[in-house]
Amino acid sequence: MQQPPSLEPVFVSDTGPYLVSASIEIKYLLRQLLDNGEIICLYPAGKREPFAISTVLAINDDELLFDVSNDAGTNAALTKEGRMLLVGVVNKVKVQFELPNVMLVAYDGRTAIRSGGPVQTLRMQRRDFYRLDIPMSQKIDCVIPLNDGGHTELSITDISLGGLSLLGVSSDLPMQVGDVLRDCRVQLLDIGIIEVDMQICIVIDVTLRNGIKTQRIGCRFFDLSGKMQTLIQRFINKIERQRISRE
């Protein structure tokens, strides 16, 4: 059985493969920690000790609030330099935030730790965005326009803010790596419709359980607008909440 990620901080010389830069995704990760009541660890920036086991109390604009430690010395160490690290786990993946402007404050009749919004966020998984597998019960199709004015539809197997994967073969539209698919449309249940341009990055021949041979196509989005990103993130949040409620 796979062990869950530890809550120890990770210090790497090259943060590039793990750096999360999209503000909407950073907000999503923080919101997951808050909404799910996840246990987190707080550390002085650049150190592994001392640490405080904590939870996120509130997220207000660019301000975060956390439970304090029962040890006054630990709280003093966390706030001494005005910077600290937050380490948590979202969807079984370790996430790490560097937070500025750290101080002790009064909150809701008690003492809490307050910080500014993250100056750096790392996801310790070599992937640009969290990718959601689409449940079989939530069939989502991608409508791809054809040159003759018609269209073809392929099933979406997963989606992220960076792209999506398709399953199926269309005789009207052979899929090749490097091809660009323009003006594609996806109805994200009751969330809304996204309209995207995307490029095919990978094409894999697969055989389904029923013996049917088909293809899995991985695509990346081009210049996804903020509005489209918001719709996708809302869809991901909706499906994740449904999944969590069934566990």
TrEMBL record:
<dbReference type="GO" id="GO:0035438">
    <property type="term" value="F:cyclic-di-GMP binding"/>
</dbReference>
<protein>
    <recommendedName>
        <fullName>Flagellar brake protein YcgR</fullName>
    </recommendedName>
</protein>
<dbReference type="InterPro" id="IPR009926">
    <property type="entry name" value="T3SS_YcgR_PilZN"/>
</dbReference>
<keyword id="KW-0973">c-di-GMP</keyword>
<dbReference type="GO" id="GO:0071945">
    <property type="term" value="P:regulation of bacterial-type flagellum-dependent cell motility by regulation of motor speed"/>
</dbReference>
<dbReference type="InterPro" id="IPR009875">
    <property type="entry name" value="PilZ_domain"/>
</dbReference>
<dbReference type="GO" id="GO:0071973">
    <property type="term" value="P:bacterial-type flagellum-dependent cell motility"/>
</dbReference>
<keyword id="KW-0547">Nucleotide-binding</keyword>
<dbReference type="Pfam" id="PF07238">
    <property type="entry name" value="PilZ"/>
</dbReference>
<dbReference type="GO" id="GO:0009425">
    <property type="term" value="C:bacterial-type flagellum basal body"/>
</dbReference>
<comment type="subunit">
    <text>Monomer. Interacts with the flagellar basal bodies.</text>
</comment>
<dbReference type="InterPro" id="IPR012349">
    <property type="entry name" value="Split_barrel_FMN-bd"/>
</dbReference>
<dbReference type="Pfam" id="PF07317">
    <property type="entry name" value="PilZN"/>
</dbReference>
<feature type="domain" description="PilZ">
    <location>
        <begin position="125"/>
        <end position="237"/>
    </location>
</feature>
<keyword id="KW-0975">Bacterial flagellum</keyword>
<dbReference type="InterPro" id="IPR023787">
    <property type="entry name" value="T3SS_YcgR"/>
</dbReference>
<comment type="function">
    <text>Acts as a flagellar brake, regulating swimming and swarming in a bis-(3'-5') cyclic diguanylic acid (c-di-GMP)-dependent manner. Binds 1 c-di-GMP dimer per subunit. Increasing levels of c-di-GMP lead to decreased motility.</text>
</comment>
<comment type="similarity">
    <text>Belongs to the YcgR family.</text>
</comment>
<feature type="domain" description="Type III secretion system flagellar brake protein YcgR PilZN">
    <location>
        <begin position="18"/>
        <end position="118"/>
    </location>
</feature>
